[in-house]
Amino acid sequence: MTIGIIAAAMLCVASPAAAETLTNRSVISLVQAGLGDEAVIAKIKASDTRFDLGTEDLIALKKQGVPSSVLAAMLAASQSGANAARAALSPDSPDWRVPHPSGVYLLADWLPAPRMQRLDPTTANQTKTGGMLGYALTAGIAPIKMKSVIPNDHARIGATKRKPDFYFFFDEANAGLSGGANTGSWLTGPNATVTSPAEFSLVRFDVRKDRREARVGSFNIGGAKSGVMDKDRIPFDYERVAPGVFRVTPQQPLEPGEYGFLYSLSAGSGPGMFSNSMTTRVFDFSIAAP
Questions:
Q1: Residue 131: which region, alpha, beta or left (left: phi > 0; alpha: psi -120 to 50)?
Q2: What is the pLDDT of residue 188?
Q3: What is the DSSP string of 34-67?
Q4: Strand locations in 227-277, DSSP E?
Q5: Any idea what the Cα angle at residue 262 is, between residues 258 and 265, rounded to 5°?
């Protein structure tokens, strides 16, 4: 009996304690339990942490009675964690839980060694018009179509899977790495950023000899429309799997061809029906034939 008790005690000593991650709520509970500043700070230094420390968060913590010395320890722990996470950033890990640089990724899970493939954005600022003859013959009833043009007839990244998974990593996912500031990856204009796949359109490109085209506007006697037409959008589902991280999947299998996620549609101003010069940011990819 004595041997069994000793063995059990030795096992408890040898076994590491269950991993614990301190949060804002954990710290508030420790402070309100009256542990004292030094004990709480020691606990912060000895534990994994996941703190929210924006301006409003710090004010809320202070109102809950968290002393300044503990707040300073929380900030120091977050900075230390950010430095470790920065070193752990991976551009191709197939695990979305691993921090990735902001961007759009195709999960190439059909490869022998699955990995994320980053879709580098292409800015299409060339607009091509079509349908001018029909516009003229119908006195402006038939629309002039405006198409965004991107160079080359084939995307650099391709999938052999007709219903691939994509992962969108926004700045929020790496807020601890950049002090919560926007890195510029998703800027669409002054003080405007993209934060959700809902702001994207998935389209299939018309392939020409040395370019790809997608309709992004039209003009007729009734007025002008900018942006991807509803009938040209390919529906997709998205799921928020972590702060700033979304899994995106087309609702239906994609036919072989050239595709892209489009956002940052903007138009110039000025007189005349051709004043709307479109600017489109495109994350392009292809679906290979079987």
A1: left
A2: 54
A3: T--HHHHHHHHHHSEE----SHHHHHHHHHTT--
A4: 236-242, 245-250, 257-267
A5: 140
